[in-house]
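Please check this one:

***
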Amino acid sequence: MHPALTYLIYIASALVMLGAFTLVYTAITRYREFELIHEGNIAAMLSYGGALVGFSFTLCSSIAVHATFVMFVLWGLAAMAVQALVYAVMGRVIRGMDDAIQENNIAMGGLMGSISLAAGIVNAACLT
């Protein structure tokens, strides 16, 4: 297959997976990220942004390390599950996390974003 076609397939698929991740992640959180972000809620942006970038690290690593498209997709799905699990666990461990993010507690949003980012980096490293 021509490298340009391979590139187009991977970039299109990765963008679709980023969209799918956004749908899944925003469905499992107890607040509406995009409404809050539109209103200027920095905490929501930090939390969502960390999860999105963390997920992206695993996509990046999967594309770079795995030669098959099927493995790329499977690792992408696994990365979605990891990010969802991180959110679910942290929501139980950190009492009041959702309320704090809705109230624009920037420290809480930054913490959640950082935890999600760290989970994504570690997840991506596990693929190498």
Notes: The chain is about 85% helix and 0% strand. The longest helix spans residues 3-28. Helices lie at 3-28, 33-38, 42-65, 69-93, 97-102, 106-125. The two ends are 25 Å apart (CA to CA).
